[in-house]
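Researcher: Here's a chain I'd like modeled. Treat it as a single chain, no partners, no ligands.
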Amino acid sequence: MLARQQRFRRGGSLSAVALMFVGVVALLGVDASAADNVKSAALGDYPNRYIELTIPFAPGGGVDLFGRTVAQMLNDQKLVSKPIQVVNKPGAGGSLGMTLMVQRKGDPHNLLGIAIHAIVTPLTLGAGYSYKDMTPVAKVFSEYEMMVVRTESPLKSLKDVEAALRKDPGSLTIGGASLGNSDHITVALFAKSIGVDPTKINYIPYSGGESNPAIIGGHVDVGMGGLDLISHVESGRMRVLAISSPKRLGSRFQKLPTFVEQGYDVVNENWRGLFGPPEMPPAVVQYWRDALGKMVQSAAWKAELEKNQWVNTFETESFRSSLDRESQVYSALLKQLGLAK
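Model: Modeled as a single isolated chain. Structure tokens:
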């Protein structure tokens, strides 16, 4: 008990006694108003200063856009009582930001916004911290992958791609983002689903959006990318062979087939999520889950999802178990691809 109390003193303003009351309320089934009172007591005056949201990448990228959009929504809708300040700490594929978060053990006024780098970067670098060393707060949304070809391509379907790869895994050039990225992982999953060694696939990594002109210009046979490729599809420059979502998406994507519905066991998402430091007090974790839960129901947030081709996959309590399952898949694939250290 003494060690536990000392831990709470080091971690912030929550007291061990207040947290015990929260547990008692949950166990005894006290009415909602009483539970709210105990919850308020556990939180005290939290937050009593601004919140720092660390983005472990440079300004302008996808994770940065996610973090700044969430901060603006929570601030503008007054879902949190203190302002959220976004701070960029780029370095080593997100490792610097994760290291800083782990060093802020128990601090309730710090959050980290990150994506699958929380799983992939530690595996590929062979060192550093991962999602396992932090407190998962919520998965906020996901992006999915599209397998595409240029409009004039003789490859008309996934069956055509499968036939070519089965005959000769290296016969097709497949372009996408960097090695070990979600694009590459999706291709590897597809190869495994058709019984082809993913290490034999002729995958060509590009930086930034350089793969798009390569696809359109016919410099690669098949292309991979995010849902933002829909603009090239609608303009008639690309055709979609499959999307890596578990089921068909709505809106502009409702006519586009998934891998799964075509008989291929391929589901892959590039999520965006929020984490706290290790030993973030449970009442504070719930505070953020409640605030984010209100945010994702708002019309303003739904408009952002539509504008940015983001898919609502909001997840809180089960987020950690989802990460564990995904980590197992990525770890096995990256080892097979020779990218895990």
